[in-house]
Structures are given as C-alpha cells and as structure tokens.
Amino acid sequence: MSLHVNGFWGIIHLALVIWAVVSIVQSGASTGGKVGWILLIALLPVLGFVIWLFLGPKSR
Q1: Left, alpha or beta for 54 (phi > 0: left; psi -120 to 50: alpha)?
Q2: How many CA atoms lie within 13 A of 13 on its CB side?
C-alpha cells in the first residue's frame, strides 16, 4: 500500500515541478535568473519549489 501512496505523491510532485519550470521559462526574468530558479528546484526539490512559489518570477 505504501508504494502506491509514495507513487501518487511522486506524480503530484513531478506535475508541480513541470508546472514550475514552464512558468519560469515563460516569465520575464533574465536568462540567468531562469537558470538559477530551475537549478534551485532541481537541486532542492521540495524546498526549492516552495521558495519559488513564494519568491520566484511570475508568468507574463
């Protein structure tokens, strides 16, 4: 049972990360800023996403 629960949360996390990366790429931030935010999300998956959610660049 726990494997199915963990898989569910993994899929939710993957969807949120994809949404964040698409939003970052579409934002008006500089190229360096975009790369920095994507690296933060990639290196600190949950914490990076939460930081981006509150402080990251907004979509156009």
Answers
A1: alpha
A2: 15
Selected residue with higher pLDDT from 23 and 5: 23
SS (HEC) of the chain: CHHHHHHHHHHHHHHHHHHHHHHHHHECCCHHHHHHHHHHHHHCHHHHHHHHHHHCCCEC
d(CA 23, CA 20): 5
Kindly report the pTM of this predicted structure: 0.81
- CA 8 to mean position of chain CA atoms: 17
